[in-house]
């Protein structure tokens, strides 16, 4: 099974983000078949905390049909605690650089898209961690 489909199965089954950790120490996310740092193939799955902080963001007032009920929405680049960057939605009206966020899963997407693999996949997105909550 390819790393990409395995990632989605793990997200759906365990409801957590996983990355691949290479022998060289690089944490590879989103997962891909070989390490972008050393081109190595010997990687193992590691569970991510799902926590990170907003590195950059934009607020969109235009959306595809499946998102029109959610406008405006915030798309961010999030620096995960383990190091990798990921682009995702953050559920907040007041995004800030450095805001601490936690991954949440939206399982029922009802997406009207032709690819049934994508229709079945949950959406990972992020929400702010309230200040003072370090758990
Ligand atoms: Zn490597």
Strand content: 35-45%
Q: Return residue spans where pLDDT drops below 50 for at least 5 consecutive residues.
A: none
SS-derived structural category: mainly beta
Q: Which CATH class of the largest domain? A: Mainly Beta
- The helix-strand sequence is HEEEEEEEHE
CATH architecture classification of the largest domain: Beta Barrel
Strand order of the largest sheet: 6-5-4-7-8
Radius of gyration (CA) equals: 16 Å
Characterize the biggest β-sheet. Answer: 5 strands, antiparallel
Helix content: 10-25%
How far apart, in Å, are the first and last alpha carbons? 34 Å
Count of alpha/pi helices: 2
Mean pLDDT, all residues? 88
Heteromolecules bound: zinc ion
> CATH topology of the largest domain, what is it called?
OB fold (Dihydrolipoamide Acetyltransferase, E2P)
């Amino acid at each position: 099974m390819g790393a990409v489909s395995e990632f989605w199965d793990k997200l759906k089954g365990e409801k957590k983000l996983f990355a691949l950790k290479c022998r060289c120490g690089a944490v590879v996310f989103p997962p891909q078949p070989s390490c972008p740092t050393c081109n190595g193939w010997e990687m193992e799955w590691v569970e991510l905390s799902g926590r990170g902080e907003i590195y950059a963001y934009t607020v969109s007032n235009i959306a595809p049909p499946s998102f029109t009920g959610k406008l405006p929405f915030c798309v961010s680049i999030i620096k995960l605690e383990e190091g990798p960057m990921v682009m995702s939605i953050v559920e907040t009206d007041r995004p800030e650089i450095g805001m601490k966020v936690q991954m949440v899963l939206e399982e029922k997407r009802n997406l009207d898209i032709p690819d049934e693999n994508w229709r079945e996949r949950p959406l990972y997105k992020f929400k702010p961690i309230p200040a003072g909550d370090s758990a």
